[in-house]
Amino acid sequence: MMKSKKLLTLTILLISATEMGAMGIAPSLASIAADFPDTPVTTIMNIMNFPGLAMIIVALITPSLIKVISKKILCNIGVLCYAAIGPLGYLFNSSITLLYIWAGLLGIGFGLLMPTSNGLIADFYSEEERGSIMGMQTMFTNLGGIYLTYVGGMLAAISWHMNYLAYCIGFVPFILGCIVIPKENMDKTKEQIKKEKVRMNPKVFMYGIFIFIFIATYGVFNNNMSFLIESRGIGNAATSGTVTALFLVGGVIGGIIFGPLNKKLNDYMYCVGFGFIVVGYLLVYAANSLPVLFLGAVISGMSISQCMPQSLLGATNCSKVAGVTAACMVIHVGGQLGTFLGTYFYTPIPSMISDAVDFRYVFAAAMAAIMMVVCGVCVRIANKKEMAK
After folding, report:
1. CA angle 40-41-46, nearest 5°?
2. What is the mean pLDDT of residues 146-171?
3. Model-level pTM?
């Protein structure tokens, strides 16, 4: 029983490693633009953003799908979508339309696997076990991003078509998922949904708003880093890639410390996450040398491993079992909206005060400092209301 539980945990963690799949095609964007010179550059760049749009649409209907299809099947279909774009993208890539189709397929996969994988954690693990598993989830998500950045980049150096082959690693968690994840009793699930049909806990929406603001602020790092390095003359495109990798390494380190911290701080973990952004972004602003910039990258990257797992853990623990998938959907959609809308706030607003790229980091750090206080106050009020019930 213990061995099967460990194998199930490993399977869920490997599924989580696929969640940064949208960044996997990044190393090929310049080569794709060169091969399709008549296509606007913004259209090429939006290949990376398109999975997020598809993910939001599918995630909104996933809670309805679990009423008729088991979470195991939906999760495995999602992972298969990730894996399938490997051979599909490698073999069929003669038009931008095809590349968008594969990006959409990737987004469909995310919309299915993200909410259901967290639903599986709620089904098979106790509240005490969920904290450490969700912390490790974020760690594996960042490791998956590092894998795609480096392996995908190496393959793209040979040919941008080969970049897609990096996604073939998704067949490993797909096969494991088919074998290891227990079958769900659909009759029992339907009965639970009927019995537990209650209004979504308001705390879920609080978590969704927190993660929306956090992801918008977190995105400032990568959106502006190459411009910062160029403006300060402390590196080139390769340096930017190294900094991005260290940013993801920070996410791995943050995942290691999440479990112990969560046991003591619970929802106050948001304050820790925003605090890492404050320190990391101020270090980036002050950096006139690469070591300081690298340190700022690692500390900034640690932030996501506090806020994202806390959002999913909080939403899971305050929901009935039948409502967990819907609660996790709120978190993932909030995060995707933060990714989309963040640049529309953190680029034009700071530019009204200063045109300097590095000022965007100061502005984002100030917003993160404010959110530390806001999150602390909101959590305290929410906890008091729960205790009063």
Report:
1. 105
2. 89
3. 0.82
